[in-house]
What does this fold into?
Amino acid sequence: MGHMENVLVDADVGYQVRDFLGVTFVNVTTQGDANGIEMFNPSGRATVCNFRSNLGIAVTLASNDGKLTDSIVWGRDDIAVLVYGDDCLVAGNRIRAEQDGVVIEGFGTQADRNIVRDNHFFWPGDDLDDTYDVIRITDNADKNVIDGNIIHPDVTDQPRYGINIDGSTCLENVIGHNSFGDLTDYGTFPLQDLGTDTRYPAARTADMSVGGALTIGQGAAWYPFAGPSIFLDAHPTAGVAPSGGPVTVDIEKNETTSAYVTATNPSIASGTKIGSRAPGDPMLFVEDDYISLNLDAVNGAENLTCVVRFLEG
It folds into this structure.
């Protein structure tokens, strides 16, 4: 295990630093046209550093237990931080990402239980509008935690997604409370979740109900929003099951249908998740917007309850 402190590295080919020994990097600056730093040894640590790469990946955590904390990272022509080890920590950094910010890439076998926490992302993805993600989890990356991050998107060349869980093979990842900035400053949407069994411990809920026998066109109590929020899903259940077809519930934003969900019996809670909305526009809410329910099909069901989940942005 080595130590590198108060060093400037400037290389234009390959990697500026490749760490196989488990070096602790303190106050190290890399700059130039090569990839920045790649840490292969589980003991590798980088703190209070300044990593810049003009033509490659700025920082790569390529082994288990790597740490990148309290540093400044500038990814100019590639990913700012790539993680494909397990149990790594990316925390407390200022990340300037002209393309992708942090990518947790499983490469089919790993990148599990990593933590991306309390980082500030500045003007991510502004190299090309609606193309890059601030944080992306992909390719069998499981049980990673994304929490406490603050995103400052560019209003002109916007990131595609703030957080993108990019496939059903990404299992049980955790999305905590992150600040997305202005929810309209994303080329596609602040959040895409195509993963399986994603956890949202910071999600808020709105409980709405319609008592008695249900009728088509019947509405339910509406829920007003106090600030920017992102719709996650809705879970309706019927106290008396429908027969011959489902209960179909329109989820309305300001009395305009934006999504619908169905429930076929009291024990099934079907939901519409980000990435599979139908029909209508993505559901973002600002202060004084409201969400309500409208019944399109009832088939003899009674006593509807519907739990709507959303993230405060």
In short: The chain has two domains: 3-193, 204-312. The two ends are 42 Å apart (CA to CA).
